[in-house]
Amino acid sequence: MASRPREHGPSRRNPEQALAELRERAAGQTRALVTGEDWARWLRIAARFPGWSFTNVMLIVGQWPAATLVAGYDQWQARGRQVRKGEPGIQVIAEPGQPPGAVGQQRAGRGGRGTLRQEAGKPRVAYVWDVSQTTGPPVHDAAVPLPDQSAVLPGLRDALTWLARREGFAVERAAGGEGDSETSWTGHLMRVSADLGGPVAARALLHELGHVLAHASLAHLPRASTAGCRGTQKIEADSIACIAAARLGMDTST
Question: From its phi and psi, is residue 168 left (phi > 0), alpha (psi between -120 and 50) or beta?
Answer without folding.
Answer: left
